Amino acid sequence: MSHSPQYAVRLHDAIRRSETPALVGLDPRFEQLPDTLVRAARCRQLDEAATVASAFEEFCCRVIDVVSPLVPAVKPQAAFFEEWGPDGCRSLGHVIRYARRAGLLVICDAKRGDIGSTAEAYARGYLAGSDPDAAIWGADALTVNPYLGRDTLEPFIDVARQRGAGIYVLVRTSNRGARTFQDIRSDSQPLYRYVAQVVDELAVATAGGGDFGLVGAVVGATYPKELAELRNAMPHAPLLVPGYGSQGGTAADVADAFTPQGLGALVNSSRGINFAFRHKPYADRFAPDEWEQAVEAATRRMIDDLAEQTPAGNLRAGPECSSRLL
Amino acid sequence: MSHSPQYAVRLHDAIRRSETPALVGLDPRFEQLPDTLVRAARCRQLDEAATVASAFEEFCCRVIDVVSPLVPAVKPQAAFFEEWGPDGCRSLGHVIRYARRAGLLVICDAKRGDIGSTAEAYARGYLAGSDPDAAIWGADALTVNPYLGRDTLEPFIDVARQRGAGIYVLVRTSNRGARTFQDIRSDSQPLYRYVAQVVDELAVATAGGGDFGLVGAVVGATYPKELAELRNAMPHAPLLVPGYGSQGGTAADVADAFTPQGLGALVNSSRGINFAFRHKPYADRFAPDEWEQAVEAATRRMIDDLAEQTPAGNLRAGPECSSRLL
After folding, report:
1. For residues B278-310, b (16+ Cβ closer than 10 Å) or e, as one string?
2. Structural domains counted in chain B
3. CATH of residue B274
4. Measured between beta carbons, which residues in chain B are less than 8 angstroms from residue A49?
């Protein structure tokens, strides 16, 4: 029984409110942070890990300040924080809280997965859902790896259902080598389609009468044909689509991820937004100290790109938009 | 090029020295900790997460004190620490360091997996190898999930090779639902055999002339027939065998994991050792405050069981043992 607003409802409210499915990844990479920000962190901390962690906090929170009026959600990548040990972990927790307070949905990209009561421990720790204080890490949703089997997804679903949280199961990842195992075929159907089938069953079972359930799927923008196929195979699963931008996926490539109304999917960009100030065309337009303006310009460009090339454009033509014109 | 003693060499040195392949899992579950230990932690900390984290540290370090003269390695389960947020993460780091100082190999059971530079971040953070200070988390080895593909294992292998660390790739997990995806068959071969094939190729490529490489495999004791099959399919991969004890696997079930000399595998028990004082036969023999004696008795029982029922018994008949008898 659900005690909180369902994840899919919360997700779509956020998407409709910001009129875009653009998801900003938070991928702090120390060597790419703005120099002034790193120098300031060195003044605050003596220890290396504490310096990095402090710089990550400032960087991510300033990105959040820029993007929270523009997008519905952010996706911190746990690996970059964990690399710096317990200090990095503390920063991850801080950044998630900060994003929640700024009104953003937070999808923690930690790709967890384990068996039984171990999976339960991850679920209880990460999945806060509608009340950020319901779990110590405070996330709205978590990415989850399906290799261990269907029964290992269930503890995540149980916790998510109670709290109005969601999970995104890896179905088709965006890397080149995704084919090694995900494409192994049985009865002419690749493994990722078997995973998709389970995901959609679990999405239906958790939809509570709505169109979408709390179990979603990660499907890379770098495999556009399969994205269309998987949208059809999982009509009840919210999609998380990585691979747009730096990884080579275009807005046209992700068009099939959406319903005609522009719902049902979030499209992620991380590096292309976080470090826009280091790359063309933004490096020419903004000085390094104007990195936040570059973040804003890159985010706006992505939003427009998705609106022009995908059904996400229909989010802008909705009733909210017309009433605002009156 | 390897700059440090290879993982397989370090692993087998440790197994030969302790004359057993018994691996003690560190699975701190707050509600099962000894009461006196929890009460003491409440005196030290006011905040709940800090209390739990402090109790975990004391519990795990005392388990380490008991088992370090007996076994070659411990396996902390990251989920139980992470559940308690940044405080829990700090305890995990502390426990790993403490175990390393006690002379144990540490396999961090975090089942990580991600693409490209993200996988690299996990690898750099966790895999310390022979020098505990080479990575912030200080582990000798890490469990890794293969679903994302072969290319996502490579960043882990590159870092592990440089540092004398190892990885254990999930091949056949010990849970009931392991079959959902791991048994999907293509050309009459199940997925887990495809993963095993890649694991053995990577193990051969990293063996540096030795019998075993730095890439190992997780294969559950709860599927004994498949354990034998997988030992043959991956002759160069060190095995990590969960599922002994509480999960139902017996010593006879894991006998096929070993070479005739009793090498090539570690067999894990977590709950059965950690919380021995709560269960038969130890609950009858030891008072709750004698929980460490229960840990010792359960560990010795497992060691004897493996020596009696598996080729691990041959570790005791080695030259070290005979020379000690002189």
Report:
1. eeeebeeebeeeebbbbbbbbbebbbebbbeeb
2. 1
3. 3.20.20.70
4. 136
